[in-house]
Amino acid sequence: MAKRYLTLAADGGLSITEITGDDADGNKLTKNLFELSRTSDMTTHFDPAIHTREAIAAGIEGHRALAVTAECEDTDLPSDRYFRNAWEWSD
Amino acid sequence: MPWTFYNSNGQRLSSAATSIDVLDIDGATDIGAAIVDADLFIIDDGAGGTNRKTAASRIVTYVGANTDTRSGSAKGYCQIAAAGTLVANSYNVASITDSATGDRTIVWDTDFGNANYTAVSCGTGGNLRTNYEHSSFATGSVRLRAYDEAGSALADMESSTVGHGDQ
């Protein structure tokens, strides 16, 4: 079983993230959000002490506001990702 | 019995506690050859004042594990499966995000030193006529999009990416 993290892309589409290896402290996922949220800032290095999930969700300068929309197991996702934007979610 | 002698500057050396600043290496004989694994260095173990010898081979291992500054070596690589998931044995990849048809973002584990690095991607699994475009080069990530010859975004394809640059 492998976790997948779902976020909304800039165009409103659904993005599916896979984390490599262990992420016990959650920093890889937070860094992923930091990177996906970039708009004009291409040079700032991720700093977990500053770029917290709360800060990213609130919006950092040069980044759009972004947070995890949902998380699930890979097996919970439909196999046909071509029509992912038509997927409907329920808790 | 502790020994005592003087260096060429007339400074006193002793086995008890010789300060590093009294060592005079200027006049020493050069090794006259390339450093090899078996050569020895003096090292203060844990900066605790206990001096030990260390073989040059340990330095190679240490440097290799902590920095990868060789300009020609790849700083990251991965193979992405058709489903947008990572194939095992990638290097320096923290995560992969499948954002849309033929649209993926690779997040590097250790950032590049700047955003002016190079990424090279190609299709695998027989995707010979796929065009790959890299955009949004950032220190910690790069976006990869795949198109067909007509410029239409391709359904998710297998691909391989390698990144080169300063770290």
Report what the structure shows.
The complex is a heterodimer of chains A (91) and B (167). Chain A has 91 residues and is of the alpha+beta class. Chain A has one domain (3-86). Chain A is built from two helices and three strands. In chain A, strands 2-1-3 form a three-stranded antiparallel sheet, with helices on one face. In chain A, β1 (3-8) and β2 (14-19) form a beta hairpin. The relative contact order of chain A is 0.25. Chain B is mainly beta and 167 residues long. Chain B folds into two domains: 4-66, no CATH class; 76-164, Immunoglobulin-like (Sandwich), CATH 2.60.40. In chain B, 7% of the residues lie in helices and 38% in strands. Chain B contains one helix and eleven strands; from the N terminus they run ββββαβββββββ. Chain B has one helix at residues 56-66, and strands at 4-6, 12-14, 40-45, 50-55, 76-80, 93-100, 103-108, 118-123, 131-138, 141-147, 159-164. In chain B, strands 6-7-10-9 form a four-stranded antiparallel sheet, with no helix packed on it. Chain B has a three-stranded antiparallel sheet with strand order 5-11-8, with no helix packed on it. Chain B has a two-stranded antiparallel ribbon with strand order 1-2. In chain B, a hairpin with a 2-residue loop joins β9 and β10 (141-147). The longest helix of chain B has 11 residues, at 56-66. The model of chain B has no long low-confidence stretch (mean pLDDT 84). The A-B interface holds A 2, 7, 9, 11, 13, 15-20, 28-29, 31-32, 34-36, 38, 41-46, 74, 79, 81-82, 84 and B 83-86, 90, 93-101, 105, 107, 109, 111, 114-115, 136-141, 155-156.
CATH architecture of the largest domain in chain B: Sandwich
Structural classification of chain B: mainly beta
Shape of chain B: rod-shaped
Distance between the termini of chain B: 51 Å
Biggest sheet of chain B, in brief?
4 strands, antiparallel
Shape of chain A: globular
Helix % of chain A is 10-25%
The oligomerization state is heterodimer
Q: Percent helix among the residues of chain B?
A: under 10%
Poorly predicted residue ranges of chain A: none
Number of helices of chain A: 2
**Estimated radius of gyration of chain B:** 26 Å
* Fraction in beta strands of chain B: 35-45%
